[in-house]
Amino acid sequence: MCAHVSAPKTPKAQRSPQGDRFIPKRSAMDGEMAFFNLCANENSNPQTPSSAKKTPGKDQYKSTLADSMGMGQTNKPHKILTLQADAPKPPEGHLNSQRVLYTQNKVSDMKKKVSMRYIPQAPEKILDAPELMDDYYLNLLDWSSTNILAVALSQTVYLWNASTGSIEELCTTQGEDDYITSVAWVQDGNYIGVGTNNQEVQIWDVGGMRQIRTMKGHRGRVSSLAWNSHILSSGSRDSSIIHHDVRIAQHVTARLEGAHTQEVCGLKWSCNGQQLASGGNDNILNVWDMGQTTPRHQICHHQAAVKALAWCPHQANLLASGGGTADRKICFWNTTTGALLQEVDTNSQVCSLMWSKHEKEILSSHGFTQNQLTLWKYPSMVKVAELTGHQSRVLHLACSPDGNTVVSGAADETLRFWKVFGNDSSKLDKSKASFQSASLARASSIR
């Protein structure tokens, strides 16, 4: 016996609360206008005499007459049947949230107003630096994170405290033919590396004003130094680069040879410490990966010595390099691929490069003919400012810890302090800050 199974019933669709016929709402209709639109073409007389042809004056008269009778803009389509009432008008003072949101987004997408800042054309301070050597290949100036400026004048390193204006003599070489060839502060500013013509690298404790150790290994003068945490890299006239671990007795951890054939005059670690850039008097620029003894990229683009090197603090793997008298170019490199991104001919020897910490701007110092400092906007490489005043080539640049002031050292034996970079008050460290006008008045010579 089979059970009877009934088929499931389809549920009835619910009736719409609205009507199912399009019945016009007469209260919202304009019957007279609708009738006029329907009969306008029928009443037109095709046998219009030539004297009654349309003219601009007649059209203007008809339009004005129609407006005065409430029947203007008859050429625009009008609804003959109105099937529902118009939406109620919003109350006075109501703001549509979507319209407000659109307006806010529209304003944010608009081109921002370019802010103009004043760049003084004269230095804030000039210090005499007697016996500052006129040697393109040396690196004799550096500014620490603790606001102390180190400058090497012949055989002696002097320390100028930019906060107090005090000057101290750190060290003096002993040999008759010996002199200081390079100086470089460690990142925390407590120690300084000093290279000499006597092929030595010295480490000095600035707080105790004492020498901690002497490291040897080069067969020529040490013309460039660069710190990367506890690793101090040194470049020499013997064309080699040595990595020194200053914590251990056997300090030489790597010797980089064969990539340069002449003096290594430029040496800079990247901001993240993963790559080292080296430039030489052989016109070669090398990019080294941390821990490697062969260069990642060997670039032979420049036509003169490559001393000026600067890593961009705003963009990873962006390196700027500058060439000497026979080259005169500033080049920008992607150090991941080795590609040349951009170059600009400066028409003078490029001695040093310095990126701004706050803006995408780069400062270059030059030799003959103007001995000027030039501020460039990157990547457009439009000149923002040119600063003149030095009487000889501007060999060295160093930046204050707050990133606002740049000091330039030139072969005219002067140091000049320039307010060239913009402020970043949100990042300004008041304790290290900087460069007080009171301290500037206390000294006119570095020694």
From TrEMBL:
Placement of WD repeats on the sequence: 173-214, 257-290, 387-420
Domain of life: Eukaryota
Region (Disordered): 1-23, 41-61
Presence of the UniProt keyword Repeat in the record: yes
Compositionally biased residues, Polar residues: 41-53
UniProt family annotation: Belongs to the WD repeat CDC20/Fizzy family.
Limits of the CDC20/Fizzy WD40 domain: 127-418
Protein name: CDC20/Fizzy WD40 domain-containing protein
Gene Ontology molecular-function annotations: anaphase-promoting complex binding; ubiquitin ligase activator activity
Entry annotated with the keyword Cell division: yes
Example GO BP: cell division
Keyword annotations: Cell cycle, Cell division, Mitosis, Repeat, WD repeat
GO cellular component, one term: anaphase-promoting complex
Organism: Guillardia theta (strain CCMP2712)
Record-linked Pfam families: WD40_CDC20-Fz
